[in-house]
## 1
Amino acid sequence: FEIYASTQNANETQAVVASCLGVSANKVACKVKRLGGGFGGKESRTIPLSCIMSIAAYHQKRPVRCMLDRNEDMTISGQRNPFMGKWKVGLDENNKLVALDTELYLNAGWSSDLSVAVMERALGHIDNVYYIPNVRAVGRCCRTNIHSNTAFRGFGGPQANVIAETYMTEIAERIGMTQEEFREINFYKEGQTTHFNQELKDWHLPKGYFQLKEKANFDARKAAVEEFNKQSKWRKRGLAFIPTKYGISFTALHLNQAGAMIHIYHDGSVLLSHGGVEMGQGLHTKMIQICAEGLQIPLEMVHIVETSTDKVANASPTAASASSDLNGMAVKNACDQINERLEPYRAKGLPWKEIVHHAYFDRVNLSANGFYKVPDLGYKWGENKGQLFFYFTMGAAVSEVEVDLLTGSHTVIRSDVNMDLGRSINPSIDIGQIEGAFIQGMGWSTTEES
């Protein structure tokens, strides 16, 4: 059975379809050429449709194809989980946070889908970037009579950050301190531990925050906004400065693994396959870059094939902002295996095609199956022990917005974003991802309904 699906999760599509058909997984192959966008909505909700089509094809003994229109798609797929947060916060005499007691409620819809994992990530981000030595966080997924909500970009992180910034804003107003000053005095410092007992390493948020504050000319613009609001009756402006961190890893331990396959042909060309799905985020481009750099060959010599469960088995879903890390390391592992076999030929100073030529005639294996699992992870819920995330990305944004008080319409005058991504594999792609994420976040906070 061959399935061509628009899914972020070929492996689970294969497994569930096999279960529906009553056959073993090795008799089902799920293939994904590319997606026209995913953002989490195709992580699990595409699978029921694949099952329906497979059963129809099985009984009719002929191919079956189905494309949903937008209304059908939205009705079936669900949306981002709406959240409600209740909180109590304690401060000391220096206005430092000392305690947070919070309850988070998530609207799961009629089935659980991925809501438990969304809540787990939300509980891990309820602190945002602030050190709070005493935290009690309780999450509840609520079953309701609406469509089943599902993964959507950020996967609980943005909702928790909004709740965190709500209590930071409200407290700052209550104690008569500027929001920026209150945030700054409560930032995490290098080496401090989160409420899930993970030590912060490579913590560059304060540096990036103050760097952006200077580059965006924040203080002068804030004064200009205050002056504008004094002079304007019907139009008002606001200036927000929000930091963030995001934990990189699946909260489900077993998903933090990836595979890749490399074949080198007699003419020196390279065929690459990995378990990740290309959905416009540039994943295939990055994997080609890693392969080409690893084998020390030009990019043009590497060709990547569609994602398929009969090429790379047991792949994790392309999600959690972890696919470049996971699949990239699997590709690197495959390259390392081949490089070790080709080292005697490289030592002779031969060009690439001759290296491959001589290795082939010496009966050297020119294929490799790469694998990677993220080290050090293993958080235990309830015990609050172990490492939840491999590392954190972090950044900050300054946005100036004007609102028409008569119509309610708003205009984003300017936004500045500063993100720490480590060594970027492809800066053009990553800048595009940051800009796209910001625009999608604007949509969430202004027009998205759930």
## 2
Amino acid sequence: MDKPHIIYILSDEHRGQAMGHMGDPNVQTPWMDRLSGQGASFSRAYANCPICTPSRGTIFSGRHAHAGPVTGFFDVFKPTAPSTATELRKAGYRTAYFGKWHCGIVRDQVPASVAEDATRRFEGGSRNRTPECFRAGFQDWFGFENLNQHFNSSIYELHNPDPTPLEGYETDALTDKAIDYLHQYEGEQPLFLVLSVTPPHFPLVAPDEWERFDPGELQVRANFHDSPEMRDNLATYYAMIENLDWNIGRLNECLQNQPGFENTLQVYFSDHGDFMGSHGMFNMKEHPHEESVRIPAIFNWPGHIPEQGPVNGLFSLVDLMATTLGLVGSEVPVWSQGQDFSPLLRGEDFNPPADVLLEMCGSPRWNLGMPDWRGFVGERWKYAFIENRIELLFDLDNDPFEQHNLARENPEECARQRQRLLELLRETRDPYWDVLIEHGVTCDDPVTDVSANPARGLAYLHE
């Protein structure tokens, strides 16, 4: 078959429950819903490591963070590591990357044009230039590392040593850049293009015209800790998602009117979720709960992926590379740890995995409430082992909002799940956590938090 163009639309911190076709009663996402209805959307898709850098390493390597090229928040994508981009280049693709990367920060790679800038145009964020060797094989580069400056973003274009400012709101500006590139693309090679935007990641800010929600009227989740602050945050989070959905629409209208892009596979997904008021937290992920680890995963390819809407199957980001390669008829490399879900997406017989490995690997540890952990989720049970030997056990059938930790009440089931976790860690070549689980010791003394701003912590950390 002719190779399709491939478009990845990658957002940051969009939890999988927050879309219209997934039942959210507040947010309107007509373009996400259309792509799902005309294709497929995994009803239970997971980020294996719910924090930016290692999650992105998993996305583009098909490897779990503990066994991949990006093993923590302060790591980089190793220069010689194979990736989705390098595999598709072997299949004849041209590759292009737009937006947030966050897998190539080298501390001294800040040009004088940024370090000595007096205009405040490059103020805030990590304005480091991504060295070519840490770009995972992407050829046409229009990226940045980690800014969190939605109205003051900038990108490094191709090999230019100095950044180019973006005007306006980041999601709008990056979509403009990607559309311009598509209009000008005349290559004979099929294109693999990634559009990676920061919103709805914090800071919670959106253009005024998108702030349409009355916080007091929002319908909230059963585990939402209600307060005016939480509602205000959730209202803006939804506004950022609706702006993103509108930009997905703009990109699709471009594709529909651009000769040569009739045969295009699109995938929309996020690198992790956010609690956004659930369990009393916002602007936070990093933990095993559904709001943190559940993500969108929408596949759309007219004529090749039947119209299915939400589909079952425990899909996760480690499967994304294998599934993409499988869909376009390329061989899945032997080093991939993901499973190829392309038969399921084509409507063929398929046995999905019984469980998905979850982890926090290389936490940035901004505070004491950000431990490393290992865990997994199956159809019914979710289990996690935290580095301080706290265990979590949730029965998702009977407690979908994870409000009742059964680890102490049901020690037999907890032991079974712990054993399954050990099996998964060995299968995926985790180098050390079997030692912590089977032979770890207990800390002698309670921890004293000396921070001037003691960490907000989820309740389970204080058990």
